[in-house]
Design brief:
Elements lengths: L8 H22 L17 H12 L3 H9 L5 H19 L2 E4 L3 H15 L9 E5 L8 E4 L2 E5 L22 H8 L3 E6 L11 E2 L3 E2 L15 H8 L6 E5 L5 H7 L2 E4 L23 E6 L2 H11 L3 H6 L10 H5 L6 E3 L10 H16 L4 E3 L11 H12 L5 H7 L9 H9 L3 H18 L2 H7 L6 H25 L3 E5 L19 H8 L4 E8 L2 H7 L12 H9 L7 E7 L5 H14 L5 E4 L16 H9 E4 L6
Parallel strand pairs: 2-5, 2-8, 11-12, 11-13
Antiparallel strand pairs: 1-5, 3-4, 6-7, 8-10, 9-10, 9-14, 13-15, 14-15, 16-17
Helix pairs in contact: 1-4, 2-4, 4-5, 7-8, 9-22, 13-18, 13-19, 16-17
Keywords: Hydrolase
Organism: Caenorhabditis remanei (Caenorhabditis vulgaris)
Protein name: CRE-FAAH-4 protein
Length: about 625
């Protein structure tokens, strides 16, 4: 049994004991019953009912309004933190999205309030509790508030779900976390990721499986899935994550959130576990999860090009967000496609794009159809997909195979891990590439054959693939310029949120997101509507709905999208490199013309009486409704 944990079973058991104790402490410290007459609680602290009422008022506010209320003393940092910890722990009991709580959070809130009392000054993000994807380093650093040295953080592990990395705390801190803390925001928890990061199901043997708050039988995506799930459920003000092949965007699409993957150099971040050290030509980007585009823009304005951030991370671009691009009157010209030429999307995701484009056309926007097959004669879409997956594993999976060695495999990642490890056997790898994959192309799936043959036979082949990537990037930009477009709208992913067992079988879907890491361009996600019954009915129409082409991958894809009515449905917005301002502008336009998706709101114990059609409602949705109400999202248009 010890070998199942890489010989680290004792560390796993010690962690679970310590972590359980800390959750109990946080639950007690944030319990309204324990806060009666606590002088740090504002707006009434004589009864638990008063305190709970204040907490609920805080938790219903959007980020911008809460920030304003904190700046104008309607709330203090301590009360707001207690409210979010109180709610986040309840949420975590349902969907298992938090891996660790940051011990110093309460001390940080107290220090913020005390510093304000002494100086009368507040940082721009004063008192906003936020969650941190657990691949970000958080270690021994002092949080400084208006030149008052106050709270010292301890060192935290970054395990990414691997037992061998327990009890190896980091000694540096991610500059993104440090900057946000210096502005007065409070990191209070770390959130779940896939085992080793390289998947879009957030599950691992140490921390367990994170559920999508919209449907407890489905994944919130990955690798930033814990972040997205917690924010969608209302347990944090905003989240931060990373994106190597869709790790911000897939969870945003699955959970009904907004995010923007910037150009890598526009907002550079260090001191994180990137998932794949020494990766090929893939832009590793970092960003935020928010509920609206306005919140996204607000947070990006705080950090992108900020001189204080550049002091912490000099490799980041000094270019701030330019108002001229964000606010100009001229309507942008918008391109679109629904077919990437490699992996078709299901009807709901196709409709999301087509419906958005028609709404924009009706508003007078010039719309231009883009065809991926026209971008390059030299590299058709299947060749580009092969190029992408060779960039993901330039060493053919050797690093990943070693990373997973000696570990207990997560039940939802077993297939992926075994495929990675079997490629390290030279004979088996040769048979797969030259025997099984050509056969698979004709018998099972040309898409599976494409990624199965993504192999760099030697260093020269690896170099050639990187050169081809550079050539394709230039061809992409030239094609874009020839179409005279300012932005592009395309599917956010191949399906809505999937049941847990499907991501390991549908890695081909990462092409629609990973392509834009390979191109290293801004890529945002905006929720536009829920999946409807017509979308699901079309799934089962092989002629006009979702042709299967005799492909086992497409059959799995169809099956993964069954019973998805009501789940969030989103689009991607793409721009040229370093044009984040235009990306935000078009995201805001898309948001303004779309119906959007509802928001989840926590149900009180007294409110858990909603009647549902249990016969025709998926069990995971019924479980979700026990915890969350669906409420309209109000966005200023």
């Amino acid at each position: 049994m010890g070998n199942m944990w890489g010989g680290n079973r004792g560390a796993v058991e010690r962690f679970k004991k310590t972590n359980g104790d800390l959750f109990a402490q946080f639950e007690k410290r944030s319990n309204p019953d324990q806060l009666i007459n606590n002088p740090r609680i504002v707006n009434g602290n004589e009864t638990s009912q008063q305190i709970e009422k204040t907490f609920c008022e805080i938790l219903e506010l959007d980020l911008i309004t809460l920030k304003s209320h904190l700046q104008t003393d309607q709330y203090n940092a301590y009360t707001v933190l207690c409210a979010f910890v109180w709610r986040a722990i309840k949420i975590n009991n349902g969907i298992n999205c938090i891996t660790e709580l940051i011990k110093e959070a309460f001390d940080t809130a107290e220090a913020l309030d005390d510093a304000y009392e002494e100086t009368g000054e507040k940082g721009e993000l004063f008192g906003l509790p936020f969650s941190v994807k657990s691949n970000f380093y958080v270690s021994n650093f002092f949080i400084k508030f208006q030149y008052i040295l106050s709270v010292q953080m301890e060192n935290y592990d970054v395990t990414v779900g691997l037992a061998k990395l327990l009890e190896q705390p980091k000694t540096t801190t991610c500059p993104m976390v440090k900057f946000l803390s210096k502005q007065g925001a409070i990191p209070f928890c770390l959130t779940n990721v896939p085992q080793g990061l390289l998947s879009y199901v957030s599950s691992n043997p140490i921390y367990g499986t994170t559920k999508n708050p919209w449907d407890f039988s489905r994944t919130p995506g990955g690798s930033s899935g814990g972040e997205a799930a917690l924010l969608a459920a209302g347990g944090t003000t905003f989240g931060i994550g990373s994106d190597l092949a869709g790790s911000l965007r897939i969870p945003a699409a699955f959970c009904g959130l907004v995010t923007l993957k910037p150009t890598e150099s526009r907002f550079y971040v260090t001191d994180t576990h990137g998932g794949l050290p020494g990766r090929g030509r893939l832009g590793l980007s970092f960003g935020f999860y928010t509920k609206t585009v306005a919140e996204q823009e607000f947070l990006l304005r705080q950090i992108v090009g900020n001189p204080e951030y550049l002091e912490l991370c000099p490799m980041s671009s000094p270019a701030e967000l330019r108002d001229t691009t964000l606010d100009i009157d001229k309507k942008p010209t918008i391109g679109w496609f629904v077919d990437d030429g490699f992996n078709p999307v299901v009807p709901s995701n196709r409709r999301a794009v087509e419906q958005t484009v028609e709404l924009l056309r009706a508003q007078g926007y010039k719309i231009v159809e883009i065809k991926m097959s026209e971008v390059s004669e030299e590299f058709p879409p299947f060749a580009v997909a092969n190029m992408l997956f060779r960039n993901v594993m330039p060493d053919n999976g050797a690093y990943m195979s070693e990373m997973y060695g000696g570990e207990q495999y997560d039940e939802y990642m077993k297939l992926f891990i075994r495929l990675v490890r079997v490629k390290q056997n030279v004979l088996i790898s040769w048979l797969i590439r030259y025997g099984a994959m050509p056969l698979a192309k004709f018998l099972f799936s040309k898409r599976l054959a494409c990624i199965g043959s993504a192999y760099n036979s030697d260093l020269a082949a690896c170099r050639q693939n990187q050169e081809n990537t550079d050539i394709y990037k230039l061809q992409w930009i030239r094609y874009w310029k020839s179409k005279n477009i300012d932005a592009l709208i395309c599917p956010s992913f191949i399906t809505p949120a999937q049941p847990f067992e499907y991501p390991a079988q549908l890695s081909t879907g990462a092409f629609i997101t990973g392509l834009f890491n390979m191109l290293d361009v801004p890529a945002g996600v905006v929720p536009v509507s829920p999946v409807n019954q017509d979308d699901v009915d079309l799934l089962n129409d092989p002629v006009d709905g979702f042709p299967l082409e005799g492909d086992i991958i497409l059959r799995k894809q169809r099956d993964s999208a069954q019973k998805s009515v009501g789940l969030p449905n989103a689009v991607q917005v793409i721009t040229l490199p370093n044009c984040e301002e235009m990306c935000l502008r078009v995201m805001k336009i898309v948001e303004s013309v779309s119906v959007g998706v509802q928001r989840l709101q926590w149900r009180s114990e007294e409110d858990r009486t909603e009647t549902m059609d249990e016969k025709n409602t998926p069990a995971g949705v019924i479980s979700s409704h026990e915890y969350f109400k669906r409420i309209p999202l109000h966005i200023s248009k």
